[in-house]
Amino acid sequence: MDVVPPSSDRVWDARAAILTRERLERESAAATIAAQHADGELIRLHSGRYARTGDAGGFVEDRHLRTIAAVHSRRQASAAPFSHASAAVLWGLPLFRHVPQAVHVSDARHNGVVRHARGVARHEVSVPDDDIVVIGGIPCTSLERTVFDVARTLPLASAVAVADAALRLVAWDPEDRVYDQGAASTWATAMEERIARARGARGIRQARWIMAFADGRAQLPGESMSRLLLHDLGFATPRLQVRLADSSHLYFVDFGLDDAKAWGEFDGEGKYTDAQFRGERTPWEVVRAEKEREDWIRATTHRPLVRWGMQHLASSVTLGRRLAEFGIRPPR
Q: Mean pLDDT, 10 residues at a time, over the chain (332 residues)?
């Protein structure tokens, strides 16, 4: 199943931010470059490749994308595609609780061997042409191949967040807030078939479990982690992005904990602080709207609604304690 890559603007921006040593030397002396690097004004991303501190990005994904761009700028056009966590970043997928220690590429030589050199992890495995796409001028593995690789090699929580986000890319319509279950099922089936063909490969059992568990209705990595911990706590599979409406209200709730007759919400800090999420509203206006929303949901459904944040996702114990404060426990 072909999946259209997300906008490549962020990739082109990352490539534009790369400064070569040759360019820097044209603009200033080598001693000045060394001083800027020592002072933290310049970040060395790869051999002979730098970025201004303000252009390096604050999130793990942004920083890794700059490093990918730096590595790519030194490679030949016919070089092997970026893969694994690096391909996930190019696809715009989250690296939840995972910080890559190297840029990953896949190349067919001695199958299965991983070699590390100069900040590049080369996975010596074959990648067929139909498993290679180009995003922002940089070749990487297809979405299906990327999730296959990540699901086998990253820690469980990180891999679940990637798989959820990939399914969301496949099936979620952000305009109408509609999840295309048919598209999701088709893509998941293709993934399951790929996994079945790789029986016995490293990490294949985890990959199989992840694809059975993945759900693109999870909007954020914190929601993916919440799903995983709710599963560990013994709750039934929750409904996600539950639509609640009457003639004058339309709300969506992150988690329908139907076996506990409760609602759950994961609160990322950006909801209140990031203008991208709150738009023109002030943080106080967001809080007031959320209070009105919660009051309506509780009064209409006669169910408790509990919120939790990233601090409650350290383990199933911490999330379980948060839920128990509101009298919410798995019934089994």
A: 80 92 76 73 85 78 95 81 97 96 83 68 90 95 97 97 97 89 96 94 96 96 98 96 89 95 85 55 79 92 95 97 95 78
CA distance 213 to 195: 14
Give the global pTM.
0.89
Task: Give the C-alpha separation, 161 to 157, whole Å.
Answer: 6
Q: Residue 224 and residue 157: Cα distance in Å, rounded? A: 8
Beta pairing class for 103-106 and 120-124: parallel
Reduced to 3 states (helix: H, G, I; strand: E, B; else coil), residue 61 is helix
Separation in Å, CA 71 to CA 75, 80, 119, 137, 220: 7, 12, 9, 13, 29
Strand runs labelled E in 101-203: 103-106, 113-117, 120-124, 132-135, 138-141, 172-173, 178-179
Give the tokens for residue 219: 């909007």
3-state SS assignment for residue 304:
coil
Calpha distance 99→97 (Å, rounded): 7
